[in-house]
Specification:
The structure is a single chain. Helices cover 52% and strands 6% of the residues. The protein is α/β, with parallel strands linked by helices. Strand 2, helix 2 and strand 3 form a beta-alpha-beta unit.
Length: 339
């Protein structure tokens, strides 16, 4: 078996993360000028679009060396190059089959060219996470994942968030990357559960769409014609727009989640009061009393939160840093290395 001079096999690679038919122009040129188009999967997502364009596709087993030998080295030779439409799974067995052909039909196999037909866009791997979450929650998926609710996942969201904060504060970039993924999973998990609500369903696309609209609205200096010089002016515009959105609230403290850790809750309340310019309540006393009680200790901590906000200090982060220093000092006194 011999091929005509100049015979060529084009391995056309594609990604399943773009809509079928969205192929690069060189890919369409290769398909239209091909003497033969092959694919290894009858359910290939690109087949309907390619066939609709008038291109005939023959489905063959990618791991079958004899079949490939017949198609690639047999007579009569096609009038143009043979194009292999790559599958999203990488066509297991194709590489081995081509290597076997190169040995068994030395000098007869055509020139091989790899042609990228479509590319992943930035953020395309998020589509994989959508698919994975859908598989886990669907019949035949994971029983544990299928049983979870918004309420049952709260503790995991809190834990993952604190682990992310710790990775940031420790400067551990490997852990930071991992913990960002864990927090991202929680967002996708809750969104997938929300799709199943009988009367008020929404999806991850709705969640993403809402935050995109909010970001664009609150950044008129980027997406509109508002001028803003410096971060302080940007922050002031942000707060003004946010206040306009929440104009139906009765109190400046409406919306502050009471479930925050105590010190973070106090700091958030102080932040709301300060930003609103509210002066109806005096600051707590900052003096250390001779004898601490539950009430005086609470007032002292509140005063610290107020002073910290005025000084631009994140009181919650400051306390964690001090606690870690205390932890390391204790370990050092015990003859142990810092964590």
């Amino acid at each position: 078996m011999t091929n005509l001079p100049g015979a060529k096999l084009i391995l056309l690679t594609t990604t399943h993360r773009v809509a079928p038919g969205l192929l690069a122009w060189p890919a369409w040129e290769a398909l239209r000028s091909a003497g033969r188009v092959l694919a290894g999967d009858a359910a290939h997502p690109q087949l309907p679009a390619v066939r609709q364009a008038g291109v005939e596709v023959e489905v063959v087993a990618p791991g079958s060396a004899p079949t490939l030998a017949r198609l690639l080295t047999g007579q009569p030779a096609p009038s143009g190059p043979t194009v292999w439409l790559g599958s999203p799974d990488g066509d297991p067995g194709l590489t081995d089959a081509l290597a076997r052909l190169a040995v068994e039909h030395a000098g007869e196999v055509p020139e091989i060219e790899v042609l990228p037909g479509s590319y992943d866009l930035p953020g395309a791997r998020l589509l994989d996470l959508v698919s994975v979450m859908d598989r886990l929650r669907s019949p035949g998926g994971c029983p544990w994942d299928a049983e979870q609710t918004h309420a049952s996942l709260v503790k995991y969201l809190v834990e993952e968030s604190f682990e992310l904060v710790e990775a940031i504060e420790e400067g551990d970039r490997d852990t930071l990357r991992e913990e960002l993924g864990d927090v991202l999973l929680q967002v996708f998990f809750h969104s997938r559960i929300a799709e199943e609500h009988p009367t008020d369903a929404f999806s991850i696309d709705d969640v993403a769409g809402d935050i995109v609209e909010k970001l664009m609205y609150r950044h008129p200096h980027v997406f509109g014609d508002v001028e803003a010089e410096g971060a302080a002016e940007v922050e002031a515009n942000w707060e003004a727009l946010k206040a306009a959105e929440k104009s139906e609230r009765e109190s400046v403290l409406d919306g502050v989640p009471a479930g925050l850790p105590a010190l973070a809750y106090a700091a958030k309340l102080v932040s709301r009061v300060r930003r609103a310019g509210f002066t109806g309540v005096p600051d707590a006393a900052y003096e250390l009393p001779a004898e601490l009680t539950a009430e005086s200790a609470g007032r002292l901590l509140l005063a610290v939160a107020q002073r910290a906000f005025d000084a631009g200090v994140d009181v919650d982060a400051a306390l964690r840093a001090a606690a870690r220093g205390y932890r390391d000092a204790v370990r050092a006194a015990e003859g142990l290395k810092p964590e």
